Amino acid sequence: MSARSRRKLFLGSIMLSFAVLMTSQEVQAMHSGQNISDMGESNYFYVGLNYSPVFSKIRDFTISESSGETKAVYPYLRDGKSVKLETNRFDWSVPDPQIRFKNSVLLAMEGSIGYTMGALRFEVEVGYERFKIKSRYGKGIRGEESDTIYLLAKELAYDVVANKTDALAAALAKVKGQDIVHFANTLKIIHPWINEQICNRGKDYLSSGLPNSKAGSCDSKDKRDGKLRQSLTEALGSQGAQKWPNINNGDEKLSGGKSDGKPYALDASATVAGDISVLDRESKVMVAGLLARTIEGSEIVEIKAISSTSVMLNACYDLFSEGLGIMPYTCIGLGSNFVSIVEGKVTPKLSYKLKAGLSYKFSPEVSAFAGGFYQRVVGDGEYVDLPVKRLSYDLSPQGRTKETAVAKFSMSYVGGEFGIRFAF
After folding, report:
1. CA-CA 20 to 30 A from 406: which of 114, 198, 224, 375?
2. Is residue 148 part of a domain?
3. Minimal CA–CA distance to 375: which of 348, 346, 349, 355?
């Protein structure tokens, strides 16, 4: 049975039960001669409480850091361990997973207070809905804390794991020299074998082709014994911070001749990008994580649920039937939804509500009602200034990792309402 069929069966069974209850009460009223709609023409205050299961329509959900530099969103890896905000704990093979939300069924209560003037009613209604995030592992898989955490990655990290070599070369060419040197030095300390695989293609003095190979080859300085020290850090040399994207192609003499390399004369960003692109998958993830930590920064957002507290001013019309306790009603409302996506931030949004149903008076003071409604949040669908977290060991320059994120989505929902009103 589909989810839609289950919803129809759920609502239908409740409406049928309510209809049976109203019929039995009407029969009792006819036997007793009591007219339970005597209050149809009077004015009175009332309070209401109802259960309102909601089926969400949260669509096109996206999130990025506040300046719009996010290139991809990566989910946290579910590994059964405690959550650690480290780059290797995210699934870099799944960019931009679909972020979806459950229905609000358990925590779905509304309350109202209003005033009736004959067939017209005006009420202030307060409701609460909570749409928990769905597990990306599919139905039947219990959600975990890790399912709520996402990494917002920028251009360099994304280009590395997405194998976008040309885009990576263009992005590397724009990086400040001091930043690339910082990255290379950190890479040499943490992952020295990767450092040695970048800019490693030159030949020693005993092999042919050394002079020609040095032209734009991202080689390093020559040593007097005719050997080459090759790595990204060696290629950057002593002036990498000032000269990048140009690199040191060597200008020292070999043991048997003179190098014809021209130091810091050629742009090596494409060569570095090409060397990174041929690394194995695990090494690429390490490079991407280190680029995020040392150069461009990245943000982490935790989305447990979208919760909404709505405050609506409703205008309703009750269609009285002489001698009957059953009253159809219809309402239109305007108000605000106070929406929370991450802890610590609530955003008010304009919204409207349409609802219709049936009410039944058990006595002049007590009535029950059942109906359905549609509610929609209007506007641009943008939720700004959402707090984010930093990666562990974030060494990026001040300001690269942003303090906030922006989410965009459309939000509407349909549901039922089943409750009691008390007149006074």
Report:
1. 375
2. no
3. 355
- Residue finishing a domain among 243, 261, 296: 296
CATH of residue 348: 2.40.160.20
Say which residues have a Cβ less than 8 Å from residue 334's Cβ, sequence separation at least 6.
312, 313, 350, 351, 352, 353
User: Has residue 119 been placed in a domain?
Assistant: yes
Tokens of 177: 């020299």
User: What pLDDT, on a 0 to 100 scale, did the predictor assign at position 224?
Assistant: 46
Tell me how many degrees the CA angle 125-130-136 measures, rounded to the nearest 5.
Answer: 155
Q: Does some domain include residue 44?
A: yes
The total number of structural domains that make up the chain: 2
Q: Which two tokens stand for residue 128?
A: 């609460």
Give pLDDT, residue 104: 87
* 41, 118 contact by CB (below 8 A): yes
pTM of the model: 0.80
Q: What is the mean pLDDT of residues 224-249?
A: 78
pLDDT mean across residues, the chain: 83
Q: Which domain holds residue 290?
A: 155-296
**Is residue 180, in this structure, part of any structural domain at all?**
yes
First to last CA, the chain: 45
